[in-house]
Amino acid sequence: MYIKLTVSATQPVIKFTYSSSSVYVRMTTPSPTYIKVGSNDAGGGGASDSALTLIQYVRNQTGATLTKGTVVYINGATGNTCTVTKAIATSDATSAQTLGLIRDDLENNGFGYVVVFGKISGLNTQTLSEGQQLYLSPTIAGGYTTTKPYAPYHLVYVGIVTRVHPNQGTIEVRVQNGFEMDEIHDVAAQSPTNGDVIQYVSSTGLWTKTSSIDFGSW
User: What is the pLDDT of residue 134?
Assistant: First the structure.
């Protein structure tokens, strides 16, 4: 059993087909989000695949083509469509909104799709190994690396290599963004200055930034 979802620009309906039953879901056009299971196109696998692929409709306004497999983040919007550009792990601004990998070459001012979750195929993964973990690169905009970045770089997990091939390689996309210390739910440490330390305050239940520590009585 598999589910095939089809989007038509003239008839914006997604059709779920299973045996003799059909369910229709009304949606807007162009589709901001497109889910496929068992697709036969370049972004997914064959009909026997059990993996789900989620892709996002985007626009490229970078001034150049975004090639297939480029790691991108959301940098704005035009109309009702988000715009994307190359992500890089050198700052929170260029990594925190990492969306996924460009599914097909996307020309400047063109509309296309980003694989947000699931399989992207048709890649050159010949220099990688199956099962290798991939992270957003801190040195190459739009690239990924097998070396886990540490501070001062920003950690963004991209996915895992599932097939090694010079032109039919596949990556399972699972974008996970790391956190700054002041983004952790029980830490209040915004706008730190030199010499500040973190200490636990029981009255608030928070790890709090302070310029000095009270060690109590000795």
Answer: 98
Full-model pTM: 0.73
Residue 41 · residue 53 · CB < 8 Å: no
C-alpha–C-alpha distance, residues 100 and 213, integer Å: 42
Amino acid at 160: I
Alpha carbon of residue 144 to chain centroid? 12
Name residues whose C-beta falls within 8 Å of residue 161's C-beta, 6 or more positions apart in sequence. 125, 128, 129, 130, 131, 132, 134, 169, 170, 171
Tell me: the pLDDT tens digits for 157-209?
999 999 999 999 999 999 999 888 877 888 888 888 898 888 888 999 998 88
Q: In the structure encoding, which two tokens stand for residue 4, read together?
A: 């095939």
List of residues 6+ apart from 108 with CB closer than 8 A: 60, 61, 62, 63, 64, 65
In the chain the first and final C-alpha atoms are separated, in Å, by 71
- pLDDT of 14 reads 46
Distances (CA, A) of 50 to 3, 6, 46, 119, 174: 10, 17, 9, 11, 16
State mean pLDDT over 33-62. Answer: 61
